[in-house]
Design a protein that fits this description.
The protein is an alpha+beta fold and 223 residues long. It contains nine helices and four strands, in the order ααααβββαααβαα.
Length: 223
Amino acid sequence: MMNLRDLTGYLAELSANNNRAWFVMNKPRYDILREEFLGLVTDVIGQISKFDPLVFSCNPKKAIFRINRDVRFSKDKSPYKTIFSAAIVPSDLKKPSQGGGPMYYFQIDSHGELFFAVGEYMPPPDRLKQIRQHIVEDGASLVKILKNKKLLHALSSLQQDSKLQRPPKGFGADHPQIELIKLKNYVVSNQVMVSQLKVDTVAKTLIDKFKTAYPLVCWLRAA
């Protein structure tokens, strides 16, 4: 079972001591916490597969993101992330960052916040074009999904980050769902402080939210 207090405490200390020497000295703590997080991810995958069978064969170890940061193109050279995170997708798809379709994502950070999201974040151009074309063909269904009160209460409306000011090339400004077509992300999300949850309810909280967003996952897969 995931020890949330130990995890957030560790991440807070890592945030204040983000260097290799500290990480190596505290590696035994990291190994224990990562194994507990792996158990949580495994449980979540198993529960999701009950309503979304395509993720049944998702490898929990591959779903978890590495704690090492890619600092090659970043001004921030801190070597480690201060979150534990995972993205769950069908095993036959590419990584989410490569445009592998919709994902179920969650993370726990150094402030004790559990963040969860469903959808596709910054898909590459070819995938983005597919989604936009699907809106042209079946935008009414997406609108219906997004207006669902349970979805809006459990997660949110679609993120508006990086939304275009004008219609993308090849798409008419008079389309009824042009505001959806302008989006670059197709993600719904929310967050809760882990201090508000019991240890044994983290997985249930995630499953309840993810299940509510399953119609969005199906719509995106159809694209």
